[in-house]
Amino acid sequence: MAQYSVASLERLIEQFERLPGIGHKTAARLAYYVLSMKESEAEKFADAILEAHKKIHYCKICCNLTDNEICSICEDERRDKSIICVVHDTRDVVAFEKTREFNATYHVLHGLLSPMNGCTPDMLHIKELLARLNNDEVKEVIMALDGTVEGEATAMYLSKLIKPLGIKVTRLAYGIPVGADLQYADEVTLSRSLDGRIEL
Amino acid sequence: MAQYSVASLERLIEQFERLPGIGHKTAARLAYYVLSMKESEAEKFADAILEAHKKIHYCKICCNLTDNEICSICEDERRDKSIICVVHDTRDVVAFEKTREFNATYHVLHGLLSPMNGCTPDMLHIKELLARLNNDEVKEVIMALDGTVEGEATAMYLSKLIKPLGIKVTRLAYGIPVGADLQYADEVTLSRSLDGRIEL
Question: In this structure, are B111 and B159 located in the same domain?
Answer without folding.
Answer: yes
